[in-house]
């Protein structure tokens, strides 16, 4: 996992960076400091936890290796949607039972609602659009399953999803040669994630949270009186309690408990220049709905409010320049195939980031075993805008002793297990990509 540079630019080339103009750089930690809480990571999880902790009068600092939103929170597709686990709804029911599957579903909806409320109450202007999300069948057999899926969503969770035929899709401005019908689930919305995460940071600073940028925590050790000591290259923080919010960007040795438990996987995004009216109508895509296809190695895409098109994919194994170039070129090939009328439209921005998986394919929110006073919330499986936001807040309440873990859905309460032979995670991924690509045909 490449660490952000100690000096120089922290830009990753995203459209989001450009869209917010300048990003405030917080100071580095020099010397010694003491707080009630130290949080590792300034993304949605860490900032949400920090804001909630200040509500209880706690003094809080955040140690961030890069700057606010340098990790996945400033790089993602901006789909504030259902997700957080890689288990299907049916697998969730089989593993945890219907009541707990409902509890998990309700938690996801509460999480989306929480983001919506924050945008309003913190007055964050984040270019919100899209009523819910549409899943597009990339082959006719997937479309055949949508009616049953809509019934399942209604029977299990009371969600009224709508099935759209290929003709309906064309009428609603969602056309493409690979779309064989759609399932519109009216939950969630889209936003500019960098505007959201910077808005959270503004709120946190205003509440007195000290954010230290370019200050990676390189060790967490017990200190006197049950406190913890966190080291950075140029300083030390002593804290009564610690919250780990590094997700896919966490160092595996900080603390050692993390080793082998998380699986960072790459996802890449390209954004085009703004499309003209003629280009939109040539392709038959004018909808502002956020969309994804039914592939396991899914594509996710949406028309942005300024008419750029955002297109994201999974894939990529190595972070060498040549491998990254191949990854971006493969994404562009997929885009050209799925949106042929836009073959000639330039990509203005392309970037990538890491999403975080676990062996059990579910997130974790709770205490770190055998580290009294240390808590973690992580592994949103590629859908963390909503889940990380709510879970950061819940983790703060857990750490304050205001709620117990039993108030959370069972699916997110078991500490992640280690992967067998963790050094081979890259090889598993290579195998998984090969297998899923075969299944997605
Ligand atoms: C390309 C891409 C597209 C995505 N699209 C979507 C989407 O459309 N919708 C959605 O819901 N989710 C999406 N996600 C996932 C979502 O972005 C993440 O789940 C979410 O941002 C995680 O937030 P977080 O705060 O837990 O972690 P992050 O935002 O990754 O923040 C962790 C921070 O911790 C810091 N850190 C780590 N270790 C240390 C340390 N030792 N010391 C100091 N700092 C440290 C890192 O620098 C980083 O800034 C996407 C992710 C990617 C990469």
TrEMBL record:
GO terms for molecular function: oxidoreductase activity. Keywords: Oxidoreductase. InterPro entries: FAD-dep_OxRdtase, FAD/NAD-bd_sf. Residues 36-398 form the FAD dependent oxidoreductase domain. The keyword Oxidoreductase applies. This is Glycine/D-amino acid oxidase-like deaminating enzyme. Transmembrane segments: none annotated. It holds the Pfam family DAO.
């Amino acid at each position: 996992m490449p660490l952000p540079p100690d000096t120089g630019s922290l830009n990753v080339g995203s459209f989001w960076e450009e869209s917010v103009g300048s990003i405030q750089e917080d100071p580095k930690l020099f010397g010694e400091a003491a707080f009630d809480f130290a949080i590792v990571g300034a993304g949605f999880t860490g900032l949400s936890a920090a804001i909630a902790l200040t509500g209880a009068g706690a003094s809080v600092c955040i140690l961030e290796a890069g700057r606010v939103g340098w990790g996945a929170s400033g790089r993602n597709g901006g789909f504030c949607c259902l997700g957080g686990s890689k288990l299907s709804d049916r697998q969730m029911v089989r593993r945890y039972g219907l009541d707990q599957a409902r509890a998990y579903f309700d938690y996801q909806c509460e999480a989306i609602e929480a983001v919506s409320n924050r945008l309003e109450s913190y007055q964050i202007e984040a270019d919100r659009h899209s009523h819910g999300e549409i899943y597009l069948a990339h082959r006719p057999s997937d479309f055949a399953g949508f009616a049953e899926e809509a019934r399942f969503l209604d029977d299990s969770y009371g969600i009224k999803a709508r099935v759209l035929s290929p003709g309906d899709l064309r009428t609603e401005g969602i056309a493409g040669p690979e779309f064989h019908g759609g399932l519109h689930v009216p939950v969630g919305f889209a936003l500019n994630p960098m505007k959201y995460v910077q808005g959270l940071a503004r709120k946190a600073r205003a509440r007195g949270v000290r954010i230290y940028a370019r200050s990676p925590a390189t060790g967490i050790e017990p200190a006197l009186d049950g406190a913890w000591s966190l080291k950075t290259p140029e300083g030390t923080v002593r804290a009564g309690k610690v919250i780990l919010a590094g997700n896919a960007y966490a160092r595996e040795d900080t603390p050692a408990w993390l080793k082998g438990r998380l699986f960072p996987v790459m996802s890449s995004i390209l954004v085009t220049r703004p499309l003209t009216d003629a280009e939109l109508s040539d392709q038959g895509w004018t909808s502002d709905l956020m969309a994804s296809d039914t592939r396991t190695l899914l594509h996710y895409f949406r028309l942005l409010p300024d008419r750029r098109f955002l297109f994201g994919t999974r894939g990529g194994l190595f972070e060498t320049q040549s491998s990254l170039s191949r990854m971006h070129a493969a994404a562009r090939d997929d885009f050209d195939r799925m949106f042929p009328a836009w073959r000639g439209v330039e990509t203005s921005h392309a970037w990538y980031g890491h999403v975080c998986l676990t062996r059990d394919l579910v997130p974790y929110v709770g205490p770190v075993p055998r580290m009294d006073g240390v808590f973690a919330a992580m592994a949103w499986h590629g859908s963390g805008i909503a889940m990380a936001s709510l879970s950061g807040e819940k983790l703060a309440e857990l750490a304050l002793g205001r709620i117990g873990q039993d108030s959370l859905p069972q699916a997110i309460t078991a500490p992640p297990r280690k992967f067998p032979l963790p050094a081979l995670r890259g090889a598993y991924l290579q195998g998984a990509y090969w297998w899923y690509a075969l299944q997605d045909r």
